[in-house]
Design brief:
Blueprint: E1 14-23, H1 40-52, E2 60-61, E3 70-81, H2 82-88, H3 92-99, E4 104-111, E5 124-132, E6 147-148, H4 155-163, E7 167-170, E8 184-196, E9 199-206, H5 213-225, H6 233-240, E10 255-261, H7 268-276
Parallel strand pairs: 3-10, 5-6
Antiparallel strand pairs: 1-3, 1-4, 2-3, 5-9, 5-10, 7-8, 8-9
Length: 284
């Protein structure tokens, strides 16, 4: 019990740290910590607690990836005592590399600017989904990050269909709805390019995503690319506003979170405040 005659224990001054993270999602049950399951958050928090000798390390992440989804541009933050960073900051990356498993790495760690929030400050998240329509299947060395599609794909048709989905819409038809959460999103970029013979990369960029949105959009476009659906079909599904059983949610392993983009430092807090508002479509 604290003696009233003695000075009250002081609360250490905290510093917000930004962590840039990469991982192979194959053997993880997603980002979010779950009892009895191996997760990216769980591994990182355990490693940070060990290296920094802190109890109750809690990371806030920019995008909670699903089981099997990869990342090379993930961002998270934590608040740690200032004196601890002063003592450990220069060697933190090397020490984390020594205790983390090989399928997750912290690529950078540094004090964050004022107003920074890994979750609410981003301008956009950019994912890439990779798929191969090679007749003989995917290169065995790429089997963990490329989906094999058994039928030939037409990228021109896929890009024509994708153009109709750009902009701010209610993406309820492409999301697994969560109680109390909006499904309104601004889809800023959706396009396919050829990376190699029979290897295609679909870039999907938005201010934020709802659950399964990227993989459902890719599934709809693959149906167009193989000629099974008309180029207008994904837009028709979007307009209907309800989940369509014909939209196949593609497997997670082809998907990688490539980039989280933040505004200039003076605009971080304003962006976080704006992101927290409940969105409605213009005119609704």
């Amino acid at each position: 019990m604290h003696d009233p005659a003695s000075p009250a224990p002081s609360t250490p001054e905290l510093l917000r740290l930004r962590l840039d993270i990469a991982y192979d999602g194959t053997d993880f049950s997603g980002w979010a910590e779950q009892p009895g399951r191996r997760t990216v958050q769980g591994e990182l928090q355990s490693a940070l607690a060990r290296v920094l000798r802190l109890d109750g390390v809690q990371l806030t992440v920019a995008g909670r990836t699903d089981a099997g989804v990869h990342a090379r541009g993930q961002v998270a933050h934590l608040d740690a005592p200032v004196d601890l960073w002063a003592a450990e900051g220069d060697r933190l990356l090397r020490r984390l590399a020594g205790v983390l498993p090989a399928d997750v790495r912290v690529r950078a760690a540094a004090p964050a600017p004022a107003g920074f929030d890994a979750r609410f400050s981003p301008l956009y998240r950019r994912y890439v989904y990779r798929v191969s329509d090679a007749p003989g299947g995917v290169d065995p060395l790429r089997r963990r990050d490329v989906l094999w599609h058994k039928r030939p794909l037409d990228l021109d048709r896929m890009n024509q269909a994708a153009a109709e989905l750009l902009g701010e819409h209610d993406f309820a038809a492409y999301c697994r709805k969560r109680e109390g959460a909006t499904t309104i999103r601004e889809l800023q970029r959706l396009e396919w390019v050829r990376e190699d013979d029979h290897l295609y990369a679909g870039t999907v960029q938005a201010d934020a995503f709802c659950h399964n949105m990227v993989r459902a959009l890719v599934g709809a476009l693959l149906a167009v690319g193989e000629g099974r659906r008309d180029t207008s079909w994904p837009g028709t599904v979007l307009s209907a506003g309800v989940r369509d059983s014909a939209v196949h949610v593609v497997p997670p392993h082809g998907l990688c979170l490539e980039e989280i983009r933040y505004p200039a430092d003076p605009d971080l807090a304003t962006r976080a405040t704006a992101t927290r508002r409940v969105r409605t479509l213009s005119g609704s």
